[in-house]
Write a structure and sequence with these properties.
It contains seven helices and 17 strands. By secondary structure, the protein is an alpha/beta fold. The strands form four sheets. It has a six-stranded antiparallel beta barrel with strand order 12-15-14-13-16-17. Strands 3-2-1-4-7 form a five-stranded parallel β-sheet, sandwiched between helices. A four-stranded mixed β-sheet has the order 9-8-11-10, with no helix packed on it. The longest helix is centred in the N-terminal third of the chain and has 20 residues. About 1% of the residues have low confidence.
Length: 358
């Protein structure tokens, strides 16, 4: 009997080719599209031509499934998504952080709720169009997360929360392909989305209009003080949700020299401004750490680490702290380390683990 795999189909080319490859490999494949929100839940505009998870995306996924000869269904995960991703996004901004909702969606929705649903329906695996390798280490019996062949599409940063249980039940068929090849496979098989552009925005915040989204949830921004690193008042800000670490433009005040957002304090409602040099830090503390290639960290370890998705990894040392916390000390100071983002650590081609920056 063929192994059964449930493929998360977003309507994009990557997940469509994922389903096609698995079917050609002999798996019994079902495509599922996750309904994560209604248009009334988000901020749309005339400029927002499309956003992922739209009705058009559902239709594209359904048409691809029909083309390649697999079943397609839609799961309504709106309640899960609102609680785990959207509400967390709002709370994080209000608390002075800058969240990464793609990481939260992977953690709570795609590799948790979707996997639960797949197992309930008798499926052996789930699969997505992420670019990453899953390999079982024979020596340790641990499942490892490895960089893909196409380093430009490396998505291991947003997958660092995967547990051993999830890794054992997940397939990433695109690990050995580059994006051009994936599009060529789609074209050769007459898939309608072969040249469909990749979605760049947060799915529920098209055009980056996150302040409008937060306000739509009932939050009212409170004005406060811009201060410098010595606590001197420099002017008035329009609410801490309007600013991100490293921001220079759009502050609404001028200082005769470039000034950047270097900190946000929700307790006293201040936004700290400073020079570019003051944005650089050598250390960070992270919590809620998930280890992949090791069981736990018991002593300092040399790693390569990054604090943003598109950042090049930097040499650092990671130190264990109490509970699930770690300290990461970079060999050279890093710019705009941001609370709420993730620090992900690598050893060679493999993800060691990662955590949320405090």
């Amino acid at each position: 009997m063929n192994k059964k795999v449930m493929v998360g189909m977003s309507g994009g080319v990557d997940s469509s080719v994922t389903a096609l490859l698995l079917k050609n490999q002999g798996y019994d494949v079902m495509g599922v599209t996750l309904k994560l929100f209604a248009n009334d839940d988000i901020v749309l505009s005339d400029e927002a031509k499309r956003t992922c998870c739209s009705l058009d995306d559902v239709d594209d996924a359904r048409r691809v499934a029909y083309k390649i000869g697999i079943e397609h269904v839609v799961f309504n995960f709106k309640d899960y998504f609102k609680k785990s991703v959207m509400d967390n996004f709002v709370d994080s901004y209000i608390n002075g952080e800058t969240p990464n909702p793609c990481i939260e969606c992977n953690k709570h929705i795609k590799f948790d709720e979707m996997l639960r649903r797949a197992e309930t329906l008798g499926y052996d695996y789930i699969a997505t169009g992420h670019y990453a390798h899953i390999i079982k280490d024979k020596a340790t019996s641990r499942y490892l997360l490895k960089r893909p062949a196409d380093r430009h599409k490396d998505q291991t940063y947003v997958l660092y929360n995967l547990t051993q249980y999830q890794l054992a039940r997940t397939l990433f068929p695109l690990a050995d392909y580059d994006k051009d090849t994936v599009r060529k496979i789609a074209e050769d098989n007459d898939l309608i989305n072969a040249r469909k552009p990749d979605s760049q925005d947060i799915c529920f915040v098209p055009n980056g209009r996150y302040v409008e989204f937060i306000n739509k949830q009932g939050y009212q921004a409170i004005k406060g003080n811009f201060i410098d690193t010595n606590g001197n008042v420099l002017g008035q800000h329009q609410g801490i949700i309007n600013y991100t670490i490293g921001q220079r433009k759009g502050l609404g005040v001028t200082f005769g020299k470039p000034m950047f957002v270097i900190d946000k304090n929700p307790i006293d409602n201040t936004v700290t401004l400073g020079t570019n040099e003051e944005l650089f830090k050598s250390e960070l503390i992270a919590d809620n750490v998930n280890w992949i290639s090791i069981e736990s960290l018991t002593e300092p370890l040399k790693v390569m680490a990054k604090t943003r998705y598109n950042q090049v990894e930097q040499s650092a040392t990671v130190y264990p702290l109490d509970g699930s916390k770690i300290k990461v000390v970079f060999d050279t100071p890093q710019r705009a380390i941001t609370k709420g983002q993730a620090v992900v650590m690598y050893q060679g081609e493999y993800v060691l683990g990662g955590g949320s920056i405090l």
